[in-house]
Amino acid sequence: MNRRRIxxxxxxxxTAAALGAGxxxxxxxxxxxxxxxxxxxxxxxxxxxADVIRYATLAASGHNTQPWRxxxxxxxxxxxxxxxxxxxxxxxxxxxxxxxxxxxxxxLAIAAAASGRPGEVIIDGPxxxxxxxxxxxxxxxxxxxxxxxxxxxxxxxxxxxxxxRDLSSLQVASAVAGVDVAIITAPTEIAAIRDLVIAGxxxxxxxxxxxxxxxxxxxxxxxxxxxxxxxxxxxxSGNPSLPTTLGSLAFDLLFDAAAENDKYARQxxxxxxxxxxxxxxxxxxxxxxxxxACQRFALEATRLGLKLAFINQPVEVAALRPELARLIGTTxxxxxxxxxxxxxxxxxxxxxxxxxxxxS
Length: 360
Prior knowledge:
Elements: H1 3-19, H2 21-28, H3 31-41, H4 49-57, E1 68-72, E2 76-81, H5 95-114, E3 119-124, E4 127-132, H6 144-147, H7 164-173, E5 179-184, H8 187-205, H9 208-216, E6 218-219, H10 222-228, E7 232-233, H11 244-254, H12 257-269, E8 273-279, H13 284-303, E9 307-310, H14 313-316, H15 321-328, E10 334-341, H16 354-357
Parallel strand pairs: 6-7
Antiparallel strand pairs: 1-2, 2-4, 3-4, 5-8, 8-10, 9-10
Helix pairs in contact: 1-2, 4-5, 5-13, 7-13, 8-12, 8-15
C-alpha cells in the first residue's frame, strides 16, 4: 500500500468516526444497493426495443460520458452524437466521442438481431443507422452474453499468457473494414508503449484543465454514481467510497503523478498484452468504425474470460502519437490503446436510464 492510499484511508477513517456510521452511509450510499442497481442495468435481454437500447448503452465510452442519442423509427434505429457530453480537454476533436458511438453501434447490432430485429449498420458521416432488414435470424451472436459482463477493469492482472488460439479469436472478432488492430505481446514492445503511457499521463496531470475535467466526471461514492448514471465510479477502480466533498478534497491533495505512473507501470507489467487500433482515415466515420472494432474485441475478450482496460494517454497527447505509430509499424494515426489479461472482477460502471438517451 502506498503513502497516498494510507493517507486516504486515514482521512476516510477520521471522517467516518466524526460523522458516525449512519451519516457516512447516508452521504455515500451502500455498495449493496449499488450492486442491485447494476444488476438491473444488466438484466437479460427481452424483446422490447427499450431493452435493445439498454444493451447498446452498456458499451464503452470515454470517461463513461455516454455521449449518444438514440432515435427509434419503424424501419431503423439511429445513433447521433450528444455534443453536450463532450470532454473538450482530453478529446478536443471529439475522437473518443465518435469511437463511443461505434462501441454502442456494435452492441446495438448484436442485441437487435437477438431480439428478432436483424439489420445492418450504416455509417453516414457522424451518424450511425441500424436499418432493419426483412427475414428472420435464428442464430444468436455468441458475443451477446458478454455485453452485460464486459467492463473496463482498472486493476492488476495476473500476468498469464493468452493462448495463441485466443489471440487469433480476438483478431478475427475485431476485424472491421478500414481499421487495423495490432495485438502486442512481446515484453520489449509492451515496455516501450508503457513508457509512452507514463509520459502521456505525466503531461496530462500537469495540465490543470485536464485535471478539472477529469474530476468533474469522477463519482466518489455509490450514491452519486446512481444519481448521475454516468462518470467514473471510484469503486469500479477499487478505490474506497467517500462523501463527495471529502472525495473532491482527497483528489486535490492526494492524486499525484508519481503514484499514478507507478500504478500504470505495475498494471501494464501484469497484463498479457496490449491492443492498438488505427483507422485508415481520421474522421468521424472511421472513428465510429474503430469503436465497432474495439467493442467487438472487448466482447470477445470477455467471452474468453479476459479483462481489459484503456490506457489511451499515447493517443490523447498528440505529440506522442507518431512514436506510438512507429512502435506498431503503421503510418496511420493510432486511435485507441488497451491492455488485456486475466484479472479480478470489480463493481460495474453506472449507466443512464434509456429514457435519458432517447430522442423525441
